[in-house]
Amino acid sequence: MSTRPAPELSSSSKRHHFHWTKKIGTEDDDDDEIPPPTAAKPSAIPTLKHSASSITRDESNARFGGGGIPTPRKKLPAVAVARLRSVLSSFNRNRFGSSSSGLGPRVVGTLFGSRKGHVHFAFQKDPTSPPAFLIELATPISGLVKEMASGLVRIALECDKKQASSAGNSSSAVRLLEEQSWRAYCNGKKCGFAGRKECGAKEWKLLNALEPISMGAGVMPSYGEGERTEIMYMRAKFERIVGSRDSEAFYMLNPDSNGAPELSIYLLRV
User: Fold this and answer.
1) Where is this region: Disordered (predicted)?
2) CB within 8 A of 246, min separation 6: which ones?
3) What CA–CA distance (Å, rounded) separates 105 from 103?
4) Got the DSSP string for 101-157?
5) What is the DSSP secondary structure assignment for residue 186, as one 8-state letter?
6) How far are the Cα atoms of 34, 54, 55 from residue 48, in angstroms, in the given order?
7) What's the burial of 123, exposed, middle or buried (CB within 10 Å: 0-12/13-18/19+)?
8) What is the DSSP letter of 215?
């Protein structure tokens, strides 16, 4: 039986259908085909690795500013923020006197006085701490209660800045809560003067009796100089806002007042 030679495929059909055979075959075809692998091909692998590493170095240089060693930029913002916070906290303590007064953004405010006596205000860090600010107004407490029953009450206390002394120290060296004398205004009307007081045994006894009360108002009996008197009081949480060395504000936090404080106290040095 005679053998018939197999028909040869055109070079274009071989490239189209059996192109993968040219990469591993050993037959000689047209000149435009991909040349067979040579012994130099394995050397291309380290060349690719070298190029990839060079690309990585180029990206690193572009990312970190041209240096071969990347700088720890991610740690710098955290360190900067920590230092900034420490500086600001120390600045606020030195500026606003939070370390000396002991008062924070939320304080306990107590208004009290005998039924026929004057109004006393005391601000404490918490019910067990000594009052950082205790002041007596010339206004009768009965008159203040009537004002509060009619609506919102705004009390402004003003003191004067003293001129600079020969040593160059001004009155701003005295903290605002340590001023001794004030002018008092209630809803824009002048109501006499007010003076800072030290917490004595009588005041301590009253504040200790009100320690379990976090918010509320009422009347409690008291004995003074051999006779029984009635002490009117009101206690609530206050929000303390410090504007500057010469201005502070205390806003009473009342959940039943629809966001409007019933009592606000402003301290101003003018």
Assistant:
1) 1-70
2) 161, 172, 176, 268, 269, 270
3) 7
4) H---SEEEEEEEEETTSEEEEEEESSTTSPPSEEEEEEEEHHHHHHHHHHS-EEEEE
5) E
6) 20, 10, 10
7) buried
8) S
The 3-state secondary structure of 28-53, one letter per residue = CCCCCCCCCCCCCHHHHHHHHHHHHH
Predicted TM-score of the model (pTM): 0.60
Q: DSSP letter string over 224-256?
A: ETTEEEEEEEEEEEEEEEEEETTEEEEEEE-TT
In 3D space, the residue among 106, 82, 83, 102 whose CA is nearest the CA of residue 93 turns out to be 102
Q: Which two tokens stand for residue 125?
A: 């860090």
For the chain, list residues with pLDDT below 70: 1-101, 164-172, 223-227, 256-260
The two structure tokens encoding residue 80 = 């900067």
94 token code pair: 């030195």
Terminal CA-to-CA distance of the chain, rounded, Å? 127
Report the alpha-carbon distance of residue 141 to residue 138 in Å, rounded. Answer: 9
Integer angstrom CA distances of residue 70 from 52, 55, 93: 18, 15, 39
138-174: pLDDT as tens digits: 999 988 888 888 888 999 999 998 875 545 455 457 8
> Cα separation of 67 and 61, whole Å?
6
pLDDT in the model for residue 31: 47
CA distance 249 to 169: 25
